Amino acid sequence: MGHGFDACARIAAIPDRDTIMVVRQEHASEGSQVTGGRTDPYPPTVEYVDGVVVLLDQAALPEVERYVRCEDWQRVARAISDLEVRGAPAIGVTAAFGLALAAERSGAGSADDLLAELAEVAEALVATRPTAVNLAWAVETVLAEAHGAGGGLAADVRRTVVACAQRLAAEDLATCRAIGDAGAGLLAGIDEVITHCNAGALATVGYGTALGVVRSAHRDNPALHVWADETRPVLQGARLTAFELGRDGIACTVIADGAAASVLREGGIGAAIVGADRIAANGDVANKIGTYGLAVAARHHGVPFYVAAPLSTIDLDTPDGSMIEIEQRPAAEVAEYRGHAITPAGAAVHNPAFDVTPADLVDAIITEVGVLRAPYGPAIEAALGRRGAGAAG
Fold first, then answer.
1. What band does 90 get if pLDDT is binned at 50, 70 and 90?
2. Does residue 18 have an active-site annotation?
3. In this structure, is residue 236 part of a structural domain?
4. pTM (predicted TM-score)
């Protein structure tokens, strides 16, 4: 199967497996509960279809385009842990759909019993990826609405949970478009940018955060070119960023992580732009390991360093980056490649999934309500206030 998606693609089950391949047809996916009003030419990263969570299997890209069917919340948790779905906004929505699955498949006869079950499921889902705050935020949002369900019956809680998860998915797409348009002006007059990891449509329900900004800027500047760090050890840049930029017709060159500083020194790059998994109250940014090094190199070479993320990525309960829990990933991600050892037996491996970039290396944080500048503490509080005012209106 080729690497491009048709504008209208649907999915069909492969018997006795929990993966499904892309099948090209004339009409969009039947039963979709999150794609209403979408204009994207590609299927969403995560979708709730006829009571099943359907995920684009990012561990298989770019070699194979296939989807994973999750028929219970445990399979959702495994998909998040195994990076079949990844990216802070995407796993937040996925976890919300995991709660929807748990609610719809629960045999609880009372609202109280169902709420108790959902609390246990929520705890397990949040534990899968502790650094990404969007995951906990989405789960807490669903639980809060579940507790406020009118009627006081288990059926009311089920309907509320499903509706909330669907709404979060739709809001994520709208948020990413707003982020893209808010940040596009920062790339005006720039022909080359550099990014790390994948903060695009694959890391969200659609469109993306950092790559959403690139997409919006590309509308006005079709010559825009992206340098993509490969992003060891899981190669999200080489596999995923290059994949989605390629299918969008946006010029992209993949480089080894260690080449980024040299490419910046050569000149020509006008900005570095990345996503975020958690932003502390002071503006410190946790993102994929290697982001800090890129920020240091960008500052040394006078290249502005931008972070694009939804306000849900900001954690006011974390005062600064030193308080962010950094997930440790399996040693095999570093020690092996496609199942083959690339380090000597017994060699020690340190594999943090994320690092923290200090706020003073960040030139701007791009959100759905606008571009934030230092000092970030007051800017973040003002931005969250604007979001609250918008929700109230």
1. very high
2. no
3. yes
4. 0.87
Distance of alpha carbon 276 from the chain centroid: 9
| Residue 307, SS3 per DSSP | strand
Residue 20 neighbours by CB under 8 Å, 6+ apart: 11, 12, 13, 14, 54, 66, 67, 68, 69
Q: Could you report the per-residue pLDDT of 339-391, keeping only the tens digit for each?
A: 899 999 999 999 999 999 999 999 999 999 999 999 999 999 999 997 766 55
Helix or strand holding residue 341 (H, E): strand 340-341
pLDDT in tens, 123-138: 999 999 988 889 999 9
Catalytic-labelled residue, pool 229, 277, 315, 363: 277
- How many C-beta atoms surround the C-beta of residue 273 within 10 A? 28
Of 158, 177, 196, which residue is a domain's last? 177
Domain CATH for 70: 1.20.120.420
The domain boundary residue, chosen from 152, 177, 202: 177
296 CB neighbour count, 10 Å cutoff: 15
| Contact in structure between 161 and 51 (CB atoms under 8 Å) | no
Domain-located, residue 293: yes
102 and 201 belong to one structural domain: no
130 located within any domain: yes
Q: How far apart are CA 299 and CA 285, in angstroms?
A: 15
CB 200 within 8 A of CB 240: yes
Domain range holding 52?
A: 9-177
Give alpha helix (H) positions in 127-259. Answer: 133-147, 154-183, 210-220, 236, 242-248
Calpha distance 157→154 (Å, rounded):
5
> Do 280 and 191 share a structural domain?
yes
pLDDT in tens, 230-271: 999 999 999 999 999 999 999 999 999 999 999 999 999 999
For residue 152, the model assigns a pLDDT of 80
Q: Which helix (H) or strand (E) holds 286?
A: strand 285-288
The bridge status of strand 52-56 relative to strand 66-70 is: antiparallel
DSSP string, 76-123: HHHHHHTTSS-SHHHHHHHHHHHHHHHHHH----SHHHHHHHHHHHHH
Greater confidence, 100 or 6?
100
Longest dimension (CA), the chain: 66
Query: Is the Cβ–Cβ distance between 128 and 77 less than 8 Å?
Result: yes
